[in-house]
Write a structure and sequence with these properties.
367 residues, Elongation Factor Tu (Ef-tu), domain 3, conserved putative lor/sdh protein from methanococcus maripaludis s2 fold, 4 domains, six-stranded antiparallel barrel, OB fold (Dihydrolipoamide Acetyltransferase, E2P), 5 helices, alpha+beta
């Protein structure tokens, strides 16, 4: 039989030590430090040429020659097409002959008026005869002016027969070939020249966000509008930066989105008209902001956001916070946490408020 002393000794050996029951739970923590942040919106956009010129004929005729290689770079004023100029040269020659005839008539009328002037002074002829000669001289002068204008117009037609580029840029495929008959009223262009050393990127974003950006710009607290990042569809950044053009912003009635135009230097011609890209538009700046990882913020049944703070005694205290924008996977806290405080990032669900914890430094995952 077991004695009372033996039973008491056995019962004591089955009771766990108090130190083992009070062992602090290991959690991952970080010390909150302020930092300057700039919140951006990554939105889809479409590349638009800086300038576009549709090459159209100003006179009709047969295309004789093409002076450019399709897809090449052309300079402003460079000849592109030659329309048969023979009919327009003939018209110019005819206008030149009409001008010469009008000048001869003017010379004759001027001579006649000069001869009659002393005769009317001596009452050798009637005043009416002299007035008629002066009127004929004035009429001949008007005919000279009219003939000169007609000659200038015909010479313009001769010049228009050689079609030149109005801008410098990259020319696309030609839409007509040699031997084609073109007219000044044609609806289709001969070719299209696009200036792409600069391009526009049209980006759509909610109108209220753009309005907030305008208000921040008016107060002098707007982010740098000259630091728009342009990305490929796969997320690779182009080695260029754009600037937001605040003028000419339109709002689409169907979606309520504001179409924001971004001007981008494109010296390497990597951005081509029609391409779809992504643009990171700055939305707001927050100097010395308090940010915490998203996983450090929990919400109760009412949706109230809280963060677990480790106090100076190593115990857990819940703190209600007011969260703002998300920046690189972190909440920007508007209130609730001060710089230098230690918060729990991982392990909050394993501890209760007021109990001690065993803190270990939290390391963010590599992106």
């Amino acid at each position: 039989m077991l004695t009372a002393a033996t039973l008491a000794l056995a019962a004591c050996s089955e009771t766990p030590p108090e130190d083992a029951a009070a062992q602090p739970v290991e959690v991952l923590v970080m010390k909150v430090q302020p930092q300057d942040v700039e919140v951006t919106d990554e939105l889809p956009g479409r590349v638009v040429a800086f300038r576009t010129a549709e090459i159209r004929p100003q006179v009709g005729g047969i295309i004789q020659r093409r002076f450019f290689e399709q897809g090449a770079f052309v300079q402003a004023g460079q000849p592109l097409f030659q329309i048969n100029p023979a009919p327009y040269r003939a018209d110019a020659n005819s206008a030149a002959a009409s001008l010469a005839r009008a000048r001869a008539s003017l010379h004759l009328a001027s001579t006649q008026a000069g001869r009659l002037k002393p005769l009317v002074a001596a009452d050798a002829i009637s005043r009416q005869s002299y007035d008629n000669a002066v009127a004929q001289r004035a009429q001949a002068a008007a005919e000279v002016a009219q003939a000169g204008s007609e000659l200038a117009r015909r010479r313009l037609d001769v010049g228009f027969a050689r079609v030149t580029s109005p801008i410098s840029g990259q020319i696309g495929a030609t839409l007509v070939t040699e031997g084609a008959l073109v007219a000044a009223q044609d609806s289709n262009p001969l070719a299209v020249v696009q200036q792409i050393d600069k391009v526009y990127v049209d980006v759509r974003q909610p109108a209220e966000r753009f309005e907030a950006l305008l208000q921040a710009r008016g107060s002098g607290k707007a982010p740098d509008a000259n630091s728009v990042e342009i990305l490929t569809s796969s997320g690779i950044s182009y080695p260029v930066r754009g600037r937001i053009l605040f003028s000419g912003v339109t709002v689409e009635p169907g979606t309520g989105n504001a179409v924001v135009r971004v001007e981008v230097n494109n010296p390497q011609h990597r951005l081509l008209p029609g391409m779809f890209v992504r643009a990171r538009l700055p939305r707001m700046t927050a100097p010395a902001a308090i940010t915490v990882p998203q996983e450090a913020v929990t919400r109760d049944a009412k949706g109230v956001a809280t963060v677990a703070v480790v106090d100076s005694q190593g115990r857990v205290r819940d703190r209600q916070v007011n969260v703002g924008e998300i920046y690189n996977g972190r909440y920007i806290l508007l209130s609730g946490i001060r710089a230098g405080e230690t918060i729990i990032v991982v392990g909050r669900d394993r501890v209760q408020t007021g109990v001690p914890v065993n803190p270990r430094p939290w390391q963010p995952a590599k992106r």
